[in-house]
Amino acid sequence: MYIIVGLGNPGKQYENTRHNIGFDVIETLAEQDHVAVLEKKHKAIIGKGFVSGQKCILAKPQTFMNLSGESVRQLLDYYKVDETAELIVISDDVSLELGQIRIRKKGSAGGHNGLKNIIAHLGHDSFVRVKMGVGEKTPGYDLADYVLGHYTSEERKVMDEAAERAADAIRAIIAQGPDAAMNDFNRKA
Asked: Which of 19, 34, 112, 121 is catalytic?
């Protein structure tokens, strides 16, 4: 079984923001694979279904970004999966170009507070992550304001396409393993 967690912030005011691309990818994957993500459990909104023929839990933590690890820890403790192989976390990344996807099997949080909190709750950084490029902030712009900012309509189109590619990448991670998925998806959009 896989636990696929998209990072974001709950609430209408955060919809369509750069920081919520993890939620967007979960919604895209859920729609394409017919998984209803509606149940409130483990400090998240979750859905149970199948992705690439494997049982999966799709989750959108409701703890706010900086406390995402609380929800992830509860999910892992309850479902007893191998967190180094069967946990996939989707997050935004300001160091990647808009729409670029990068899959990693481990690594630092890279300044991302949601990933930092997950690493703190797990006690290690060895879990699969799908990083979604939201572009670099404008010089002089506050990072928090940038990631909590909304997309332009042009950027939204790019990110909708990226969310579809990310859903494909997640299916590839599950079906073929992260190394094969990295070979196919770790390139510029």
From this structure: 19
